[in-house]
Amino acid sequence: MGSGQREQFDNPVIEWVDSRLPVFTLMQREYGVFPTPRNFNYFWNFGAIAMVMLILMIVTGIVLAMHYTADVEKSFSAVERIMREVNGGWLIRYMHMNGASFFFIAVYIHIFRGMYYGSYKKPRELLWILGVVIFLLMMATAFIGYVLPWGQMSLWGATVITNLFSAIPLVGDSIVTLLWGGFSVDNPTLTRFFALHYLLPFVIFAVVFLHVWALHVTGSNNPLGIDTKGPQDTLPFHPYYTMKDTFGILVFLIFFAIAVFYFPNALGHPDNYIPADPLVTPAHIVPEWYFLPFYAILRAITFDISIPFTEITIISAKLGGVIAMFGSIGLWFILPWLDSHPIRSARFRPLYRTFLLILLADFVFLGYVGSQSADATLFGIPLSLLGLIATAYYFIYFIAILPWLSRNEKGRDLPNSIHEAVLEKENKKMSPEAAE
Amino acid sequence: MIKRLIPVLAVLPLLLIMVVPQAEAAGDQKTAPHQHWHFSGPFGTYDRDALQRGYLVYRQVCSACHSMKRVAFRNLSDMGYNEAQIKAIASEYNVADGPDEEGEMFDRPARPSDYFPSPFPNKNAAKAANGGAYPPDLSLITKARHHGADYIYALLTGYEEPPEDKKLLAGQYYNPYMAGHVIAMAPPLSDGMVAYSDESPMTTEQYAKDVSEFLAWAAEPEMERRKQLGIQVLLFLAAFAAIMYGIKKKIWSDVH
């Protein structure tokens, strides 16, 4: 970084600093003149939006930590004290609480954008993998953070999820004891979760740095999924995308503000306003909404896998569920190799596009299944069966459909260049709507 | 155009799921019908008179068993009481303080800075006095139940004779809004039991309405400031977004 040719600056102070530590050259190169495909649509705003949400979470989180106490006797009251007594505390807390949800909304859209336009394909495999790492770290951070207010869902959600690790053969019980710091979710669990919840966002920040670095090596993908071929295909990042991102961020923040100020508890569960009580189990334990599809996959596996005609169980239902849940995200790591089709963008792969949109609907449906109790039904069909079918499609999509399409889908003809495609579109309809 | 709508259609169920309240606990419970509240909607505020009446109902009825330990007397200024009135209200209660210089605990009249005293010294005492059932603290009750104030109102007015096949033990009552339909709280309200000083009807329904509004305030005392600030923030964001849209269009005009 910055070891190559330096830019020249007229301002002597900037020049003085830059000749010793070329931060201004770096900014200029990576965010000033950085050549960016000219045909982004608004889906490309969500990386910047996610970055804003991460910073917002860290800032509000640090303020909350100043007023919070990690102690099973005091945590619930500490949060209520923030809500009622600390100046602006309710605002900081509601921003943090809803910020987690909106961070996930942004990141889910960002991930889907990557899938739809084939952004994970060569040469961006590592960029994608770093993104999956960020997502996993986010899930860990969010799960741990939900425990800190020490409400009923905090305690019981933590109990259910940490218990999953006990399904791992041989070392499972030791892992759970280590997570708990004892033999149940209790004070040691809470204090270590608080410490980790403070640490992990900075780990996320570091991986985001690598993610952005990798992006700036390969350059961005674009809605056509074809490589840029020269300056006629690109625009300098500033002012074109700085201004477009700012607009997109503001629109996103409008939705965020509506949630924070008018529906601050709509995405949460009322039971978390009941102080945690180890003697009372809630009738229905559900995780936060952004975990629901994975929770549904976890619960879909309700059968043991045994050696036929024997009593020997190889994989218990519990372990099977855990493997399926972690496997469902684990598959994302090898997605660039599961889908080896040379065309990136779904625009030119109608079959891929159809199956991917079905996957999106499937994922949303899994979220619905995850939100319902285990014995619920839909149109008279047990949801557990529908959840199993939806889980099956999820895995078939990645393991079978993608490799099959890679070999057999012909795809449409690609345009010669971004520049040509943009011009053609402009000529077709001279309307501002074509602002993709 | 239709092709462009397909992804939007695919996302619609997501929005639906977010709007539909998540997973009801114990499915057999009757859903509380919507009531009109003074505090509903983006401009809704608490009705000060209803809050004061609701507080009266709470003091004379609910507080015999239910604590409200997160609310302090000074918070009553939100309901339109002035400092002298709050001092007078607080001084009607005794709270334990100490230790004094001799190391003794002592009782003194409450001050505005004190929190509402609880009717029982601890959870076990509360259970013992209520046939084994714990009367929950009411500070957060509307946030801690699905449908909030609607639920409280429905519960307080929803007591019924049990159906023939339902056997109730002593100290149990039938209420379809309660999870499992069985509640250990006797119907707490009856017509005329609290004397209102204004013209409001002294009926069970009115008591329930007022006390639900009071409990909503106790759970979300910041609501009015929140909604007010929300309007300012949204106006700012909308204006800023509009300006940025103009700037973005102007800058991009040489590209398109």
Labels describing this entry:
heterodimer; A: mainly alpha; Cytochrome Bc1 Complex, Chain C; two-stranded antiparallel ribbon; two-stranded antiparallel sheet; 16 helices; globular; B: mainly alpha; Cytochrome Bc1 Complex, Chain D, domain 2; 7 helices
Structural overview:
- The complex is a heterodimer of chains A (436) and B (256).
- Chain A has 436 residues and is mainly alpha-helical.
- Chain A has one domain (27-268, 285-434): Cytochrome Bc1 Complex, Chain C (Up-down Bundle).
- In chain A, 62% of the residues lie in helices and 3% in strands.
- Chain A contains 16 helices and six strands.
- In chain A, a hairpin with a 6-residue loop joins strand 3 and strand 4.
- In chain A, helix 3 packs antiparallel against helix 9 (187-218), helix 5 (89-116) runs antiparallel to helix 6 (125-147) and helix 11 crosses helix 12 (317-333).
- The longest helix of chain A is centred in the middle third of the chain and has 32 residues, at 187-218.
- Chain A is globular, with a radius of gyration of 24 Å.
- The relative contact order of chain A is 0.12.
- The mean pLDDT of chain A is 93.
- Chain B is globular, with a radius of gyration of 24 Å.
- In chain B, a hairpin with an 8-residue loop joins strand 1 and strand 2.
- Among the domains of chain B are: 28-71 and 115-221, Cytochrome c-like domain (Cytochrome Bc1 Complex, Chain D, domain 2, Orthogonal Bundle), CATH 1.10.760.10; 230-256.
- Chain B has a two-stranded antiparallel ribbon with strand order 1-2.
- Chains A and B meet through helix 4, helix 5, helix 10 and helix 14 of A and helix 1 and helix 7 of B.
